Amino acid sequence: MPDVQSMVAEFVNKLRKRKIEGSQATAKCTVELLRSVISHQRVPHANQAAALIDAVKAVGQQLVAANPVELAVGNVVRRVLHIIREEDLSLTTAAMAGLDLLDASDDDDIDNCKGIGYPAMSAAVVAAAARSTLRPPSLQTLLEGTPESATVPYTSSSGADSESKTADKSSLTRKLKHDVIEGVNQLIHEISGCHEQIAEQAIEHIHQNEVILTLGSSRTVLEFLCAAKEKKRSFRVFVAEGAPRYQGHLLAKELVARGLQTTVITDSAVFAMISRVNMVIIGAHAVMANGGVIGPVGVNMAALAAKKHAVPFVVLAGSHKLCPLYPHNPEVLLNELRSPSELLDFGEFSDCLDFGAGSGSLQVVNPTFDYVPPNLVSLFITDTGGHNPSYMYRLIADYYSADDLVM
Amino acid sequence: MGAQKKKDAARVPEGLSRQRLQAIVIADSFNTRFRPLTLERPKVLLPLVNIPMIDYTLAWLESAGIDEIFVFCCAHSLQLIDHLKKSQWCSLVRTIVSHKSTSVGDALRYIYEQQHTETSQIQGDFVLVSGDTVSNMPLAELIREHRERKKRDEKAIMTMVIKKQCSRLRLGSDQLFVAVDPVTKQLLYYNEGGEVCLDKSLVLDTSVLVCNDVKDCYIDICSPEVLSLFEDNFDYQHLRRHFVKGLLVDDIMGYKIFTHEVHSSCYAARIDNLRSYDTVSKDIIQRWTYPYVPDISFSGNHPLKLGRRGMYRASDAVQSRSADIGASTVIGYGTRIGNGGKIFNSVIGNGCSIGSNVVIQGSYIWNNVTIEDGCEIRNAVVCDGVKIRAGAVLQPGVVLSFNVVVGRDFVVPAYSKVSLLQQAIKDDSDEELEYAYSSRGTADLLSGVNNLQMESKASELGPDGAGYIWEVFDSSHDEEWWKHSIVPIPMEKLADITQVTDDGDIEDESVVPPRGELKSDNDSISTDANDPNDDDYGYFQREVRETFLRAVEEDNNVDHVTPLINSLRFSYNMASADCAGAIFYSMMRLAVDSPHNSTSELYRNATSIINKSKGLLGFYVKQIDEQIEVIMKFEEMCEETAELVPLFAQIVHFLYDKDVVQEDAILRWGEEKAGADESDKVYLNQCEAFIQWLKEASEEEEDEEDS
Does the keyword Coiled coil apply (chain B) (predicted)? Predict the structure, then answer.
């Protein structure tokens, strides 16, 4: 059995040293770590949920402090806290309701559940399933008339009732933990599947013979474009290279490997090219509560250019990127300044770097992220569907409980 | 006093997939550049942008994938061990303590000795750095490269990291000259500071890369042989001056050193004087060392908040609204700044209190410093616990050691170093180092400090101050005080030094291009270009004479000597006449120098020598002018050597007989001399009869022809 404490320390260390990059990888590591924290946490008989919440919060605070810029960590911690709270609530209400319930109805419910194939479905799973119904039906599904909600079990929570009625306290403890872990597993599944979920919607947004502009590199964007390509849509992609890290080059390579028509342009050519573009699609680092986006540096410029030419600016973001915080001073506080050596050769410029020597000195700023205000964003595509920036607060209310906003 | 182990060796001996990576960190500078600060605290614990230097080194080594770090402590070992115990690396780090070591060489020898007593010490290749290295370069690649090379070539025992850099003034280090084989990267020549004197064979090899625009990062990947080499050569002290030079010059067992040039996106620097302390601090603030920057908690430090314009501030720092905090400033936890202060380009530590209207520029204020109202501090280092009373001024370059008190309105003169400890009386040995103090123990020191504070009413820092102003006594460092100080180099010095380097460059360009392939025809590398031209003939004559004497001694054939003299002639750019003169001069000197009792004997010597080498002389006296030159030369010699005077006519006659000098030459010489002063005519008069005879002879010849 691995020592949880050392696992936490190791992950904190990685975050500090900036050895782990990308929101999805970070989110996945965080949620897996939290799962083992929960499963190794000894729960007292009374007030188990509070104990779990405290444990998760304690770890979460360490993780957030280790790299405050990586917002996905905080998001995932809050999601897990929310799961614990929801489970606790559903268990207590179930326990209270169970006392009044009749035996006969229970049997029916159990049969009902088994028939559907979701025995003892936990509340979180239901919640997650319910969320997927949040996705507005696409034009196609409306036309075809297949009800999406048919596969979603509505009544499974009553399955929990039947067990809890006979359960003693220890089994109740196990039950809460079990349900929480179930919920966390669901979250892991959701995070790792977010690319596919988002890519599924590609066909509805990318049309024949369109020109798409993207900036930097994002796995989500790659999957999204490729999904459209697989559906026999033919379109062109402009990739802005994303200086100074030039991740756009990597994206272009991948796209070409998958058979897309790709053109690489410099970041500074974005404005010149934007009039030929039908849609800008970028991946986000984080989506803030007001609908603002934090993305790779240069994104704001692309958004402004798109606005000027009334080109739709679409942001792809998995739900783990939804951050319940409002951006305050985003250029500085939510940014990370990396080494200037990505811009300049230290050896050649070391002469003009000695500031204070009377003459002027060279200062180099190399921010990693850019903030795009919500009024520049046309559409968010998350794993639950497309949303307006002004709708973000509603999604956030679904995912997080208000008690956890300040950790 | 054995090597201490922090953790039991519970690690399983592995090495199946990957060899363990080990590093030795020398946590002692073994020099006195940071005095008086290092009397009270080991250098590696001095704060660099509010984090002890060694933390940068350890954080870097850890993230570069080093599994085990041996920290060699010497001076103030207790403080260092204490720090390491509290740090997050206690599971990674082991300390080795030896108070007897006085150099890196001693340290490595000590480690080598310990190797046999300890079970798990240095097992394979290891990284050798000093505890003041700041870097973010990845090491894995480098170590792999070293191992592969070692596998191919047993003798490749060390890989040295070098980095390109423009200005050596930046870090206050000495000029470094290295020669590297561009293909194999083998180090062929290494010289820091001193006179550059390249081996001729090195220069003649066209494929050698000679550069002076690199710096040595003092990061080495060593094989275990390095330790045993230090053990074998017990006089090796300095890693570069002795060890590297020893390997390169003395060619010990054919061991080779290789270099690795760091990619330009990596940072690597070593802090070995106050100037590099200043420069590296600024590089850290400018984030070249990312991710080892103040707003990232890489060593368990509290991260600071980075604001606009490169301002790092602790979240609880209190700052008056009227205080002006400029760009590139760091302000630590619990620090309070009063009204109207101006702070630029400075680092302020934790728990400081700064009064109103204080000006701080380009300075390093460490922890818990109290600065009262109206002080002015420029380009200074102020250590922990210092009190600067109201109105005091620190002029540029001041270093205030721990707990010094500067009195009211006192002006600390520029470049002075102030400590509570009295400066040691100048010792005979320059090798008096940090360790000398450490043996006394800190308790001793502290009590001394207390006494001092009680008694020192007659302080050198004003009536209510405490501390002694140190004198810069070391004359050898005298010229370099400005180079190693924290102050920006004064304009006039800068002008001086750029001029010097410019001159050097000119010389370099003609002799050694700064970086590039050398031309092989450059064999006169040791030639001093400064020589005035007037002396050239003197040098040439001397060289010709030496060549001639060697030839005579070895009884050489003329054919062998002429090429030598020809090459001399071309290298000095001399005419054929000059050669003739010089050779004749050499011959006559030989005659005069060889033992003789009478003038007749001397004449016999001279004639025999002329006989022997008339071929050589004849080679250069084909023209009339050259022959005249020979006679003129002979005249000059007679002026110098009285012995020859009576023989003048005889020898000229002899030369004529041997066909060295033709009669035309003699006649022309006679005509030229006819118009000269009486004093000059001595020799002409001597030859009067001979010339007369010559004239008659030629007339007779003409008559014969006529008839």
Answer: no
